[in-house]
Structure formats: structure tokens, C-alpha cells
Amino acid sequence: MRQAHTVEQVRAAEAALMARLPEGTLMQRAAAGLAVAVSNFLGSTYGARVVLLIGSGDNGGDALYAGARLARRGAQVTAVLLSPKAHQPGLAALESAGGRVLTGGQAHPEEPAHADQAADADQEADADGPAHADEPAHANGSAQVGEVERVVAGADVVVDGIVGIGGRPGLRPEALAVVRLVERYGVPVVAVDTPSGVDVDTGETPEPHVRAALTVTFGTHKVCHLVDPAASACGPVHLVDIGLEVPPAEVRSLQAADVRALYPVPHGESDKYSRGVLGLMVGSTQYPGAAVIATSGALAGPVGMVRYVGPDPVAHAVLAVHPEVVVGEGRVQAWAVGSGTSTGSVDLERFHRITQQQDVPVIVDAGAIAALDHDRAGRVVITPHAGELSQLIGVPRDVIEQRRLHYARQVAEDRQLVVLLKGATTIVAAPDGSVLVNPIASPWLATAGSGDVLAGICGSLLAGGLPEFEAAAVAAYLHAAAGTLAASAGPVTAMSVAHALPEATRLLLA
Ligand SMILES: NC(=O)C1=CN([C@@H]2O[C@H](COP(=O)(O)OP(=O)(O)OC[C@H]3O[C@@H](n4cnc5c(N)ncnc54)[C@H](OP(=O)(O)O)[C@@H]3O)[C@@H](O)[C@H]2O)[C@@H](O)CC1
Ligand SMILES: Nc1ncnc2c1ncn2[C@@H]1O[C@H](COP(=O)(O)OP(=O)(O)O)[C@@H](O)[C@H]1O
Ligand SMILES: [K+]
């Protein structure tokens, strides 16, 4: 299980550990891991041009010490100070290792430099050779602004040590000016602990922030590493062990071993009923394909049997592809309803009868989400994307996209059900505030019908006996794994994702 802790939890764990260790030990551990990660990112350290963006706190200290390590291995390291309060021992370490220091605390007023100017700057930087400690350090003011642009333009990597867990969302003008330069010249960024400017505890990005190609974090993951939109600004996240002992986290992410342990595998005594029967009330005459696709997702899961209920022409379409499906109502262990329906096409009488069976879990998708009774207590998973959640709670879609964790949690708590909020990253929130995030999925999954596969596999896992929270999270994990597998053969369709599910499951359980 990957855990994502809050700043408060990290601070408490850090204090407990620091009390037992000589001063500076944790920062040295962090810096050593960071230097190795930057080195691996670069491929070759000797002669590489590394620019450090340095804020006023320990995040900058990590970057400076890592920069010193890289300079000792032959990198040309330049620190750009964005605050007069930079970490002094780190600064001294960098300078004594041959690193250079510039003051970057001024906004650059000019328009974007011309592309060939950037190329010129690159060549000049090349011709410079390794920097030395006796080069001008802390030289005054505006002459350095042009120099900052020159080193940024020629950099192989920028290390973002502006702020970490002590930062408030957003970037101050002097930091923003340099970050814009970095973006203009397309230099990849390795973020120290967090991309500066994101909201660490919520994953929100209300203000400008750094976009990293890699984030190197310490001790444990933070919420912003798993939750969008901040997670998308992190790139891959590399965790450096610094010996931190942390309590259980509320926001977590299933790993392969967790999914393997949860997956309901049939055993010698199993029969089709004991493996679970899933009732599917999905598809409509308008969207008959959704029923076929959701059925494909369900049959690729652990369930022993699928019953289909819906309009006759849709049932015939399902049977044509899946002759193993039984048409008509009967006893089931779980229902999946709503995929491939609009709000107006849901069979409300049957829907309410189904959702009032308090002891049978139900996954409610698409058009049926809005038809769910507010007072329906019990075992329900809803699977909205941000647009559907917007319709349900009357909050604009873009506001939900910006505060995904907040709204997923709020709806789960208010309505006492499990919310699976779809998107590039998937958030599964339980009524008690627990959250499981699926942070990695192939963007190829953004294809029509992909959500129907997810509903099918989620229903199958529910019928197979997993509790709602775990069923939703395992479904998101397997859906993403199948999407990645399907995409290895090129662009995917929803059916190709469903067809990849058994192989993705086999690989996982092997
Ligand atoms: N915890 C651990 O286990 C370990 C932690 N370690 C490292 O320490 C880091 C935390 O260091 P930290 O506490 O010094 O805070 P940090 O994020 O560097 O800076 C905060 C300062 O920046 C300022 N500022 C605020 N907002 C801003 C903004 N938007 N834009 C610009 N500036 C802004 C504000 O200061 P001000 O300038 O307002 O006086 C504030 O005080 C952590 O992320 C990790 O890298 C590792 O070394 C070892 C193990
Ligand atoms: N950019 C993306 N990267 C990864 N997964 C995505 C992305 N966009 C959408 N998805 C996933 O694809 C599925 C789309 O479902 P949905 O929006 O219901 O589509 P449909 O209604 O066409 O089936 C969801 O599981 C969602 O999490
Ligand atoms: K940072």
C-alpha cells in the first residue's frame, strides 16, 4: 500500500526522528537521495549543466546540498537564489564544491527570447566549461537577471528547491519569473519533495506552480503526489527512504500486492453461485453497445454468472456477443446499473426496487446516478466523472476538477456511499474519509465506453464478495492495468480494454 501523509503528520514524524539523530542528518539523507535521482535522470553527471532554484527554507537546503554532491561529480551547478534567506550551510557547501551562485530575485520584464537567441545562449553556456568557486557569487542586481536567463537557457535540468511542504500554494513574483523562463526554454524540472506552488495537503493548484518531469520526495508520499491536478504536475514520483516512521494515512494507493491479496480467486469448492452472480441493468435502445461492453467487463472479473435485464433488443445484442449471459431478473449478489443510460432512460421503477434491497450492493453509473434517492442508505458505489458529479451536486465541473479530493470525500460522507470519481487519476472515497487513489492510468483509456468496462468489472468484484470501497479501488486498478496492456498494441477501444482484463489479471495473480 502506498501511503500519502499530510504535512502535519510528516512534521510530527520528522520531529520524533530528528530528536534521535545528530542535527542535519535528515537533510543529508534527503540530499544524497536527491543527487542520485538527478544523476539518474541526467544519465551522465560529468559536465551536465544543473540549475538549482533556491527558496528560503529547507527545501532549498536539500537542493543546495544535492547540488554540491553533483558539482563534486563534475556537474556545472548554478544556484539561483530567489530569497535573501537561502539555507546558509547548504550555500557554503555548494560554493566549496565549485558551484556558482546567482541572485534571481527579479521579474524579467522582456518578451520571450527568440529561439536562435536561446540556441546562442546554449552554445555560450557550453563554451563556459565547469564553473569554479572563484567565479562571481552574490554579485549585485540586474546584471544577473540576464545571466539567469542565460544559464536557464543552457541547462540540462532545473532542480526546483523553491518550496516544499512549508510552502503556501502559488509562486511569488520572483520565483514565477524564473519558472516561466524554465518553461519557455523547455528545460526539464526535477522537483524537490513537491512541485513548488501546489497545495501539498489537497492536491489542488489554485495558483501558478511548477510542472516537474520527476519529483523526488522524502520519507513518505504526500497527498499532492497522488491527487490531481497536483499529481499531474509531479511526473513520476521517486521516494527516498530517510527513516521516517509515519502513522496510517487516510489517502492511500493500492499496489499490485494489495490487489493480489484482495482479488476473489475461485477455489476447489467454488460453484457459479458461490463465486457470485451479478445483475446488470445497463444499456438502452439509444446506447445498446454499453450493455455489451459492461457485460464484457463483468465476465472478465471474478463473477460466476451474469444476469442481464433491459430492453429486448439490447438483451439480444448482449446474447449475440455473450451467450453465457442469463436474461431476466433472479437472485444476485450485486447489481451494476445505469451505464449506457441517460437520466431519462432509466427504468425508475425497477431501479428503485433494486436500490432498496439494502443487503445487495449496487454500483450506480452514468444516467442512474442522478436518479439515486438521497436517502438510500447502504451499500452503494457511484462512479461519476466530474461532469456527472457536477450534475448531482450542482457545483460547476471546473470547480470539481480543481478540488477532486474535497468533493469526492464530501459526497461520500454526505450521502454515506462510496464515490469513485473518474478522470486521469481516479479517486475512491469512503464515507469515513478514507481514500484510495489510482494515480497512474493510460490516457488511451479516455475512449467511449471505457467507463462501461469499469462499471462491469466493479460490479463483478462486488458480486465476488469485495466490500464496496475495495471493489471500487481494485476495479480502478485493474481497469488501468488493462488499459496499459491494451495500449501496448496501439490505440485502444473499450472492448480491447475489456479483452485485456483477463491477461492483466493473470499477470497480477501470477
Ligand atoms: N520533513 C522532513 O521530514 C524533511 C524535510 N526536508 C525538506 O524540508 C522541506 C521543508 O522545509 P521548510 O519547512 O523549511 O519549508 P520550505 O518548503 O522549504 O519553505 C517554506 C518557506 O518558503 C517561504 N514560502 C512559503 N510559501 C512560498 C511560496 N508560495 N513561494 C515562495 N516562498 C514561499 C516561506 O518563508 P518566507 O520567505 O515567507 O519567510 C516558508 O517559510 C521539505 O519539503 C523537504 O524538502 C528534508 O530536508 C529532510 C526531511
Ligand atoms: N486522461 C486519462 N488518463 C487515464 N484514464 C482516463 C483519462 N480520461 C479518462 N480516463 C478513464 O477512462 C474512463 C472513462 O469513463 P467515462 O468518462 O465514463 O467514459 P464513457 O462514458 O465513454 O465510458 C474512466 O475510467 C476514466 O478514469
Ligand atoms: K520544490
TrEMBL record:
Residues 102-143 are annotated as: Disordered. It catalyses: (6R)-NADHX = (6S)-NADHX; (6R)-NADPHX = (6S)-NADPHX; (6S)-NADPHX + ADP = AMP + phosphate + NADPH + H(+); (6S)-NADHX + ADP = AMP + phosphate + NADH + H(+). In the C-terminal section; belongs to the NnrD/CARKD family. In the N-terminal section; belongs to the NnrE/AIBP family. Homotetramer. HAMAP family: NADHX_dehydratase, NADHX_epimerase. NCBIfam families: yjeF_cterm. This is Bifunctional NAD(P)H-hydrate repair enzyme. The lineage of its organism: Bacteria, Bacillati, Actinomycetota, Actinomycetes, Propionibacteriales. The gene is nnrE.
